[in-house]
Design a protein that fits this description.
Strand order of the largest sheet: 6-7-3-13
Number of domains: 1
Largest sheet: 4 strands, mixed
Strand content: 25-35%
Shape: globular
Distance between the termini: 19 Å
Structural class: alpha+beta
Number of helices: 6
Number of strands: 13
Low-confidence stretches: 1-10
CATH architecture: Alpha-Beta Complex
CATH topology: Ribosomal Protein L22, Chain A
CATH superfamily: 4'-phosphopantetheinyl transferase domain
Length: 254
Amino acid sequence: MLIQCGMEAPIKLEEISEGHVHIWCALPDQISDPSLLEAYRALMDKGEKRKCDRYLSASKRHECLVSRALVRTVLSRYQALSPKKWRFVSNAHGKPEICPEQNQAHLRFNLAHTQGLVACALTRSSDVGIDVENTSLHRDMRAVQRFFAPCEKEHLQTLQGPEKLRRFHEIWTLKEACAKANGKGLGIGLARFWFLIGKDNLPRVVFEPGEKERGQDWSFFLFYPTPAHVGAVAIAMPGGARAVFSIRLIVPLL
């Protein structure tokens, strides 16, 4: 099936199997063509425009604009619906989802952005969350004391310099991605679960005794789309199966 996506030529719909996660990234700093940005804004609904316009920083408004164009155009790669026509709802904790009446392909997505990068994780049927961080920015390490579990704090104390900062960002993005996939955001309590990252760089999660979540029911992925960014994806995989992840870097509508 071919579809027309705004300024794009007709494209063949992407296929995505159960248990697979497609990660789509864009670099806002490399997207500046006025006509393209105007096309991005034309895709948004009134609520999205108001949200973007509320940012005081021009760079944040630009980042928001690119992120909305990314999610709308990515969704239209998987279902024959124009990017402009997608409608979204939020759950009780504010996590956005596709309006059920539009979602014939059973798509689930999550969006994240930081300075210099926006990213969208897309899968079918399963809960998914994504977080990205710019590792070149100054980060208040006091977050470790508030949000990290004791074993994570102890692990960071064994590291020094760039290695310590890298591992901090890895754990932080994993926690954020897991909280977003869970659907409760920070309300889940980030210190009530912790991550173990082996030499193979495959993370696994341990939940505090008494939590209803089980570590074996989740699959995680760390990725490094640029030298200045780290990202993490979390997906619910009941039964202990491993998800399959892939990444693509694009310019929306091109």
